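Q: Hi! Curious about what Sacsin/Nov domain-containing protein looks like structurally. Here's the sequence.
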Amino acid sequence: MSFEDRLGPLSPPSPAGAELPATLILGEVPLLQKAIDAWPQQNHVQGLLPALIDRLINRLNELGDVSRARVAELPIVEVGGPTRKSPNQVVDPTSALAGLYDAEDNVLPAGIFNIEGPDSYIHQLRNYGMLRTTLTPTAIGERIARISDQSQPMKDRPEKALRLLRLLDAYTGPPGSALPPPIVNMLRASACLPVADAFLTPFECWDSRGEDILLCDMVSPRIPFTVVSQHLRDCLGWAQVPFETLRSQLRKVLETETRPSHISDSDVLDRIEAVLKDIAAGFQVGRLSQGNIASLVQSLGAAAWVPTASRNRCVAGLGVLEQIDLGTKYHSVAPHLLRIPGMEALLRRMGICDRPTQTSLLSTLREIAKQLSETDIAQPTRDSLMQTSILILNELCRSIQGKESEFQDTLIPTEDCQLVPAPEVLFNDMGGDPTCPPNGLRFAHSLVSISLANAIGLRRLSEEDFAQGGDGIESFHIGEDLTVRIRGVLQDYDIDHSSNEWVANADDAKARSVTFLVDEANFEGRRVIGGLTGFQSGPALVVHNDGVFTDEDFKGLGNIGQGGKSGMPNSIGRFGLGALSFYHFSELPWVISGKYCLFLDPSKRYLPREQENIRRSAALVPLSFCKRSKPLEGLFGFNANEEEYKGTLFRFPLRTASQAAESTLSDKKFNARDIMKTIDRFYAYARESLFFTKFLVEITARRRTADLKTITLWSVISTRETISHTAEKRIAATKLSLRLKAPQTTTEAPEHWLVTRTQTTKEAFPPQLQPLFPLHRLPTPTFGIAVNLSKEDNIRNSRLFATLPLPVSTSLPVHIHATWILAQDRRSIRYDAPDAAGQRTLDTVYNQHILEKAIPLLYIKTLAIVLAHHPKTVQIFWPGKAQDDPSRIIAMEFYKQVISTKDPVLLSVQEKPIAPANSIIHSFNKTPNAVRKVLSELKVPNYVPASYIDTSLREEWGSLRFDSAKEVSNILRENTAAIQKLWQTPALTPKDILPVIDYLVKERETLDGIPLLVCGDRKLVEFRSSGDRRIFASHRNDLVRLFGSGTVVSQEFPDHHAQSWVKLNVNVCMLDRQGMRHLLAHHDQAIVPANTKAINAAQQAWYKDLLKFLATPGCPVKVQDLADLPLLPSVSGDLVVSLHYAKVGNVWWRYPHEEQALTTVLRQLGVIAVDGQLGGVQIHDMNVLVRILPLFGQLNLSPQEVLRRVTTKDWDAFVKSLKVWMQDFYLGRLSAADLKILNKLPFFLGRQGDIY
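A: Let's find out. The predicted structure is below.
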């Protein structure tokens, strides 16, 4: 039985032809809404509820949002037996939530509601989101209670428990919901987590997260799931493994008796390290207290829990934190463990020391001496003990830090495998087979290195040999602890920057070239200066220049730290740091120049002592003393037989691994390959080192192989040419041409630079800064700029220079040189932040003065010179947005001075130099490129199209003129003829014009008078705020078809652009009533208000097309809006009439499907016939009698006149077509006047009762 059969018809029946009042008719949807309102009564009728539910679900799409929300709360869904629940209580069977329930839980759909399909009940309820698909706090609590209640039956309880956990993980994951506190408490207290065959609370188990496995797997059962949500982990108490669990895990893994057999020693270490890492993290952030750590140490007792570097374990008393090799006496903690944050602090708290104490080391040496005194000890054991004693001595030297007096009682290994006190031992540093030592002395064991001997202060055999050199040796003794200073400088002083020091020395010495040589020649076996054999064999770095040292230079190096240039303020290197950089590479540098050779030994380890047993830090010897120095022979023209060397050689024997291990200067060792890489890195500085030097023109790197062949590694060679210019005379301009041979290349690459330099006096500085000149020994202040003429694009990798490049990058496109006050490490300029009172140090103020006053002015002058000689490249050298303080200061001051400069630093569109004050400048970050293109094509004389100035760098630009909207609009109005001429060429297109118009509109500039309006006929006209011509921006396709392309905006402009111009009060408009009247009035036929208008057949088609357009839904103008205009074509095709006339005049509206006879008769009677559907005009009454009788009334013709005008055949057809309307129903609707007219019409034949 259908829904209608049970309820009766949804609306009362009506008799044929009769209509009921609308208030008595109730549609199905309103009836359903009433049923929803009275839902409790719907089940009182037997069988009604299923039919009503069926109708309700199938009409959900017709119900409103409020009614559907009501339906979601009605008990309509079968869930088993007679029970029904509301959709919002029923779980969607396809959702993940459904897996938490059994059918007995009465929340899953049953019966017909469990049938899936496109039109099924469940599908429709699902579509409107009426079913439960996600967890709610109520559902979570109910499921936790249900799962943890073991007394109640449940199918697949473990699987449901895991599924609930997964859903909770997703529910609380980002950006999920937080569980309310009652649910959290319930979750923590309930045994709802499945582990094997049991259910545990969260505190009794852990999840399967991989990072936690090693922390608790031996003490906490694990569920087969990993919780990802941090909120859920917090709720479960699983955010961090508890300390008690960690301690239990550590104890468990160390118990060999109870440890599972499958846990290997490696597994034990993994777990120990994991637990220690977690405890270290907790201890570091304060989650674990010192008391926790103390209890942990107590529980570990004497167990071997410390992971060592050899992947073993030791007790805490034998472990040390630092990585040292002391044989089997001590064990270093695994190094990777110490890299963990907080681990060192934890291990110290657990009783592990950094290194063994001096007391422990000395005690061990005594134990070894006692063992060696036994006569029956085997030789391998003796050798092992010798090696161990050497390791311990090295460690002891490190801890005592070179205080020789503290080694007097130290036991030293001797060549006869005994340990005796240090004063009784002599170190053989001469090699070969020495003679017997003096009485009471023994030679040190061969394992004792020279560095160890130096550290202990053992007497050396070579000191007697060096003493034979005579009285020509001058010794230096520096009071300060020089090694500490050198080590500190080397840590702060980049090794790659050290090349600058040698280049500076060369330029100060007026040398024209400097050469770096990697010397791999080996002279082993040939004697040199007494006892220095180790510094002549093996690789060395040699630096040569063709200048010669003075006596003052040698004294300066000998008294290192004070510097040798205190009387030479115009020298580059003036702090002595240049010499300190020597020790990056060597323990014992040599300097050979003029008549002397200087040896530098700041650590006082290698130069033989003076006769009074006084150690030297340097020794200056006559050049004749170096006759036995084979490594120098033949290098750069050196001849040991000559009394004077015309040049300077620095020789740096590379620090060996053994020297580095014991060095108090640096722990960096070098071999030939290392130094080759370092020299290659020097190239990056060398290629930039000749811009501002006074004398130096060439820097080269070479290699001398073991077979004494010399190979060029790289080279930088320059030539200089003075450039004439019209800038200030005190500015020197030079074209610097470089020939660059880079490392690992065989060809030279040319590079061209323009370098400008100027200088001033100290009196030009503010008075408060002038005392800085003698304080810092500042030379005459000079400033320079270097411009790379070989670059074709923007440069953003420049440097600051103090004659030579500093490792200070700037965001300027040029290199900047000045006489700066440098930081102590000579790698940067002094530029300190202001203090709390906003004051800066005078050193910083000095440098800031240079940045603000000297450099910007020179920068502007430099650009003028570049523009005069290289106009096409000048643009890339203008400063942009700076990223660092020095660049920002220079750029801001530069642009401040550019505003008023008279220097021609810009290039106009006509490629002529021009000063900024006389220009209209393109603003690349404000003005579109299309504007630049148009103005460039117009060749505006003072226009500068290149992107020189970043207008975002300043808020105020004074009198400078940019291509702002106002400037652009004025230019366009003044160049109308030129624009029209340009429009005739391919150089100007609508794609160029559109951004220009958008720019002007965006900047609120009027378009009046600007000749950039492109019409559909591709004619360019002016935007005008007055005038008769209108250009339309809407319905352009239709208007082009009806009125021609000249009436619309070019369709090359998108609609949203063209239509946006309508609001600008110009001659662009949208189609509306007035617009259509404008178009009709200016049409070829000049359609103006009239009742009728004669047309021809060809024109009729146009009128029909027009009316068709007016009838379209999107047309904003309707024929009714034009009722006074003759637009309706007659059926005859020779006339158009206005709608107004058609409604009140002698006009017949022809219905599309009516009999042709009606129109034929009316036309013969002089009635104008028009198509009733044209133009969207609707015929409201289809009753022909109602329409035609008033028309006959207006004609007021007698029957005889009617029959006279109409042919008999046509009148017969006319009467016949009206027969269908001669029925009581239609006649009853006629007025008395219509019936009177009908009675007058000749419808009847002569016989009574007959009708045509």
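A: A fun detail: Residues 1-24, 561-575, 1246-1252 have pLDDT under 50 and may be disordered.
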